[in-house]
Design goal:
Chain lengths: ~240, ~220
């Protein structure tokens, strides 16, 4: 036993020992913290490399590297039944409406390609939408002059949000029922959702089942939790 | 040295040396189980197919959030109430890279190593750094939802990137600890605390040569 103890040396006394561990730890944490602030720029660079690979390998179908993430607030997603689904348009209107899915499809169809921005930082570029412009949709209900805002109620309770009548008249705002050439899927808000590319995703209410015309925009689901009411991309929510 | 080898042969099969104290093992297993619960719940929140299939986002969010909080609390508690000297000794060993360690990392894996080989040290350092960053970015994701001043542009990107790299590291770790024939004996050290002295001498020669290992 004794001879071994004399031969031995503890790891601390080893040749050329340097405290590299803490440097490595602090270095990685430092890079990570910098990513918090510059991550958007970095991700633009890396997605240029990663997205073509994940598109080519089919990974895109599983991993949202260049695509959607599905955010919900309720315990289950609303289910769409074309036979029973109705869209209610009421509030400050001359003629309250209850539209069926067929009625909705009968409006003049608008199409557009636009970019979708989530407030958490992910972006989906080049999404094709098909749907109805709010101008056409609301005209048939004949809004009263004092109606200045839309209360958009989702079938996913208790989600709702508000847009002003001016905001929904922007060129590329619609109530969409098609995405990338197919009827809107359940995860994306079937059968109809708001698309307002100028604003962050939480204003793009999914599973819309009621549009109430009112005098003044209120605070929607996320706005009651601290988000900005006017969610302009790049100019709100701390950006 | 001849004495050493003779000693090793005589002692093989029967002798075990303590590699990890209960405190270190508890830290490891608390971290490991929290990692997998966080990974599972995180993937449900992240992957569209799983988000759609499970849908109970508020519940999954709560599980993810509270697992993260409990993880941090448990790690702190075990360290404070446990064998702090052992934890400090472990940190000190992981911190130091000697010449053999640096050669090990540049490919010469037969260099004599201490209780942790240089690869294990790198794994531990990355794990600690990633855990810190996961925790910070996770808190920011949670709090940024309540106060947009804390919504930083790269938080989601950082949290996601850490997840991808972690999966690769953990797969490598699982391979070495469960499958690779010459290293998987290390699992015994992390579960029961002790390893065969003969194995320790082959893989961690500088550690078994030190008087500490035979307390």
């Amino acid at each position: 036993m004794h001879d071994r103890d004399q031969l031995s040396e503890s790891p601390r006394e080893n040749v050329g020992a340097r405290r590299l561990g803490r440097a490595g730890f602090l270095g990685v944490v430092g890079v990570g913290v910098a990513t918090l602030f510059y991550g958007k720029t970095i991700s633009r660079v890396t997605s240029g490399v990663i997205n073509p690979i994940s598109d080519a390998t089919g990974l895109t179908r599983i991993v949202p590297s260049s695509g959607w993430r599905i955010y919900t607030v309720a315990d289950s997603m609303p289910r769409f039944d074309p036979a029973t689904w109705r869209l209610q348009i009421d509030g400050l209107v001359e003629r309250p409406l209850e539209l069926s899915y067929e009625d909705l499809l009968a409006f003049p169809k608008a199409e557009q390609v636009s970019t979708f921005h989530c407030v958490t930082g992910w972006v989906v570029k080049g999404v094709s939408w098909g749907g109805v412009r709010f101008h056409d949709l609301l005209a048939s209900a004949r809004p009263r002059p004092e109606a200045a805002a839309l209360h958009l109620v989702s079938a996913e309770k208790p989600y709702d949000d508000y847009l002003t009548t001016r905001q929904v008249q922007l060129r590329d705002v619609m109530l969409a029922y098609e995405m990338n050439g197919k009827p809107l899927s359940r995860a994306h808000g079937a059968p109809a959702r708001v698309v307002i590319p100028e604003m962050y995703g939480y204003k793009n209410v999914k599973w819309v089942e009621r549009i109430e015309l009112i005098e003044k925009a209120g605070s929607g689901y996320w706005e009651q939790r601290g988000y900005d009411v006017d969610a302009w991309v790049g100019h709100s929510n701390g950006y | 040295m001849a004495t050493n080898e003779a000693y090793a042969r005589a002692a093989s099969n029967s002798r075990y040396v303590e590699r990890f104290t209960l405190t270190e093992r508890m830290l490891h297993w608390v971290h490991a189980s929290a990692f997998f619960v966080l990974l599972g719940s995180g993937l449900v929140l992240y992957l569209p197919s799983l988000s759609s299939a499970v849908a109970r986002r508020p519940l999954i969010k709560d599980i993810h959030f509270w697992t993260g909080i409990s993880w941090a609390g448990a790690i702190l508690l075990i360290t404070v109430l446990g064998n702090r000297r052992a934890v400090v000794r472990t940190i000190r060993e992981i911190d130091l890279f000697d010449r053999d360690d640096r050669r090990f990392l540049s490919g010469d894996i037969h260099r004599p190593q201490g209780r942790f080989n240089a690869g294990q040290k790198v794994n531990a350092i990355l794990t600690a750094a990633f855990a810190t960053l996961f925790f910070v970015s996770g808190l920011l994701l949670w709090y940024g939802e309540r106060d947009t001043r804390f919504r930083l542009g790269g938080t989601v990107y950082l949290h996601d990137t850490l997840m991808y790299i972690s999966i690769v590291i953990v797969l490598g770790h699982l391979y070495l600890s469960l499958i690779h024939p010459t290293t998987r004996h290390a699992l015994r050290g992390m579960t029961l605390g002790t390893v065969r002295e003969e194995w320790a001498q082959a893989h961690h020669a500088k550690w078994t040569a030190s008087p500490r290992s035979r307390k």
